[in-house]
Design a protein that fits this description.
226 residues; alpha+beta; four-stranded antiparallel β-sheet; 7 helices; 9 strands
Length: 226
């Protein structure tokens, strides 16, 4: 993936490229016991409701069933002590273009945040690794042609002025149209061009390069007698 040069992102436009719930979710601590349901079995807080930004807290399975049954709730999982989320749970809410997709337990997942690297591994080591691909933020070596190793690294790229967006293309076009309409004193629609090309969960499958299966061996047959 081609890396665009950073562009200046102002506070007025930052909200137009990042959903308001995403950055708070990346900062929250998960996998602690719920203070409300301490006596129950499913008390581990590993869910986040994107519709309840004012509460902004991790919730357990019981909280989800009692208070968020009709909300969009994302389940946070763990892989090697690091938090991950399934691609299918976030791809309909944010633009996941450029984020490295991993396959864990048969599911496509994203890491939420940058992972610690061994001592001595950094920009120089990442760029000199066997793979020619590396994260644009933390320089972690990547297996395929992606730009970020995690959702958090894409967020950091945007916060530092990088030319990227978390908004789905159709949502971003609407925001661009409204902003231009306000500047011109009207609400004329401006379709514009999306900065990155993912629009829904159906576009996620191409993010994970699949190895082509080996061709099946044909059924042997005896040569004819003459």
């Amino acid at each position: 993936m081609e890396r665009d040069d950073p562009v200046k992102i102002t506070n007025d436009t930052e909200k137009d490229i990042t959903p308001p719930w995403l950055e708070p979710m990346l900062k929250i601590k998960f996998f602690h016991n719920c203070a409300i349901h301490l006596g129950l079995r499913r008390k581990e807080c590993n869910f986040y409701c994107t519709d309840c930004l004012e509460k902004n807290r991790a919730i357990c399975n019981c909280c989800k069933d009692e208070e968020h049954s009709d909300h969009h709730v994302i389940q946070i999982r763990k892989s090697s002590y690091h938090e991950v989320v399934r691609v299918t749970e976030v791809a309909t809410k944010i633009n996941v273009s450029g984020i490295h997709t991993y396959i864990i337990n048969g599911s496509d997942v994203f890491f939420l945040n940058e992972r610690p690297q061994p001592k001595g591994v950094g920009a120089a080591a990442g760029k000199n690794a066997a793979s020619p691909y590396f994260c644009a933020v933390c320089c972690r070596s990547l297996l395929n042609n992606f730009m970020y190793c995690s959702i958090g690294c894409k967020m950091a790229w945007i916060k530092n002025g990088g030319n990227a967006s978390f908004l789905l293309e159709e949502v971003k076009e609407k925001c661009d149209s409204n902003r231009i309409g306000n500047e011109n004193g009207s609400m004329s629609k401006d379709s514009g061009e999306g900065e990155e090309g993912s629009s829904a969960a159906k576009d996620v499958k191409h993010l994970v390069p699949r190895l082509r299966a080996r061709p099946r061996k044909g059924i042997p047959c005896r040569s004819p007698f003459f």
